[in-house]
Design goal:
Methane Monooxygenase Hydroxylase, Chain G, domain 1, Trp/Indoleamine_2_3_dOase-like, metal ion binding, 13 helices, Trp_2-3-dOase_bac, dioxygenase, mainly alpha, Tryptophan 2,3-dioxygenase
Length: 284
Amino acid sequence: MTVEKNTRKLDKGIVRDFSSRMSYASYLQLPTLLSAQQPVSVPEHHDELLFIIQHQTTELWLKLVLHELRTAAEKLRSDDLGSALKGIARVKHIQKTLTEQWSVLATLTPTEYAEFRGFLGNSSGFQSSQYRAVEFVLGNKNRKMLPVFESDPEAHALLTEVLHAPSIYDEFLAYLHRQGFDVPEAVLNRDVTRAHEFEPGLVPLFKHIYEHAAQNWGAYEACEELVDLEDNFQLWRFRHLRTVQRTIGMKTGTGGSTGAAFLQKALELTFFPELFAVRTEIGQ
């Protein structure tokens, strides 16, 4: 089929009447989705739409990340390592997209942001329940975050649920135990509502897996996938920090935090510390 006058002819079979059929727009709820961008600046500032869409798309991706990670944890619980790793692989691709999105927001200059920042009140990304839920699912739990969400029963219920559920790391370590690996009892019986802290007894276990990768390929691959997850998460945190620094400098955050200084501290948090500590031990 050739193109004439730079115009493509429509195939005869293309559906045109959607009066009684599901359309692309209806399936995706586009009228609802595309009407959800409601700038609050007066007069409306041109760049506020960028700011809103940046954060709304992030929340959509976080919804999928949470969906995939919670399912991966369930798969580990049922000893289905392959399906769990498939979900984690998808999350890694989403993380790359989320990290790249910061480059779009970084086009917002300090002067442009200052034009509408005051209209945001105390709204802040710090209040993202889905982001906190992802942190909790990965093991970086903090019960003190819950009061922030008491005014939102649905968000509070979600965070309470994932706070009391084993993290994906807890599930992985329990999986290793069921496979015959020597996981310390203190790890298996820990309080899962608390953040995972470095456990020296896990390092020899991971050292054995890494130094005998051929005999423990599934566990070895899973370790590397988890390392990728944490690396990607830290890159996201770093890009967030740098974007905030170039946009508002060291100003206090709209949610009341110290802003960039608070975000800097997040880079010291970890999900799977033993998987990084073991690298010092391998080959010794």
